[in-house]
Amino acid sequence: MSIKDKYAIVGVGYTPQGRIEGRTELSFHLEAIINAIDDAGLTKEDIDGLICYRHFPPASDSYDVTPYMVAQHLGITPAYISQDAN
Amino acid sequence: MTMYAKPIPKINEDSRPFWGGCKVHELRFQKCNQCGHVRWPPAIICPECHGKDTVWITAAGHGRVYTYVVYHIAYHPGFKGELPYVVAVVELHEGPRIFTNIIGCSTEEVYCDMAVEVVWDDVTTELTLPKFRPVK
Amino acid sequence: MLESGFCKYVVISYGHNAVSSDSMTTMLMTLGQDEEAFGHFGATGSYALAAQRAMYEFNTGPETWKHIAVGQRKWANLNPLAMTYNRTMSYDDYMNARWLVEPFRLFDNCLVSDGGRAYIVTSAERARDLKHRPVIIAGLGQHNPADFPQSATFLAGPTGAQIAGEAALRMAGITRDDIDACQIYDCFTYTVEITLQDYGFFKPGEGTDWFQGGTIEPGGSMPVNTSGGQLSEAYFMGLTPITEGVMQLMGRCGERQLGPQTGTKAPENILCSDNGGILQCNTTIILRRA
Predict the structure, then answer these.
(1) B-chain residue closest to C148, CA distance
(2) Whether pLDDT at C135 is above 70
(3) The domain spanning residue C283 has which CATH number?
(4) Distance from A65 to chain C by nearest Cα, in Å?
(5) Is the pLDDT assigned to residue A64 strictly greater than 60?
(6) What is the mean pLDDT of residues C34-41?
(7) CA B74 to CA B80: how far, in whole Å?
(8) Which residue of C has its CA nearest to A45?
């Protein structure tokens, strides 16, 4: 089944990037997501799917960032949630 | 006796026969009794035919360098004193390809398809690593 | 999940404090398996093994890769967000850089970055009513030749990019000639070469000729990694290439915008790639201007 032309990308979220001291991995996920929502002109209530891209092991002062953790901090209850595999 | 400062392999139910073989200087691999495929890394099934009937064979220890690299940076402190050193993938005559080091020659002398033979490095009383050197 | 009607708006996110935390050290010590006993760590070593085999099979090497490193740096010098915005790179800079894992020098490696990136996907229909001109997903392909790195026969190609690329173009109903620019997953310079080669932009070993004369640079005939990419902008895995493809097609790229101002073709179709493991998976997405 082809999905040709059926879907579109409508917003991109950036964060400060480079060497940004004093920030957790989680904080970058959250900031990128709220910026993407804003960029698309949506609200958090619109978001019903969340995919956290594959990632490296956490820093020793942090816990592994799971999509559940990200959803909880965003205050959203997605119908679909997943962690992309490598 | 000084502590061994490099990472050691994780030895479990699947890999114990291989590392046990290394200890007595034998290069052991699983061979599928159903289709004859010699596999590495070890596992309960053959990736070719999913057969479970397996026998461990001993390889002769001859092969060729499939590809290699020269480390100029020590990502682990245990290797600082070894720089530069060669990590290679060696393809054994019996089929499997394994990660190893090429020793017994300079880093510049290594090339793809170079004929090599196993040389045993007893790094601790418990652990022996199969390394390779050029065939003279 | 969009196709099943399960979701209306899906957000995809990445975040990492790779520079300012100890996460990368943990990664180096946990990515591999028994090969660590032989001093083989992380992705650089394994991609270098692939690159060495490619040098043997089709005679590529630093003379090809320098065009990728320098070409992408020229794009980064037009991108104020890029970590290397203020640092130019010459061919000599590339060649004089120190070896990490030979045949890779320092600038064959991607950056390590703090930061994050996210994007939102919805139906083309819903997209019409939103803020920006949407970017259509015209084609999609994936292929995963998931053999062990030491057993892999695809290190010097064909990687998953060949089948994934063909599938994505077929779905989009276009050919390679319709592609105006590429955003290629560029964890290493060699990854860019082998991926473009497997897409069929040039034959094995003809990369050196193809890259020469600034093909992928501003003013070139096939711009590649126009943000600077993972090599020169920032490393956010697959989100670095795809978000740049989106921003270019939305026309929001400022000084580096594809079109007359950078001496390039105004883009209609941009091919984006994602690559995982040691060339063990490839996803190809064709983005089209709405």
Answers:
(1) B41
(2) yes
(3) 3.40.47.10
(4) 9
(5) yes
(6) 95
(7) 5
(8) C9
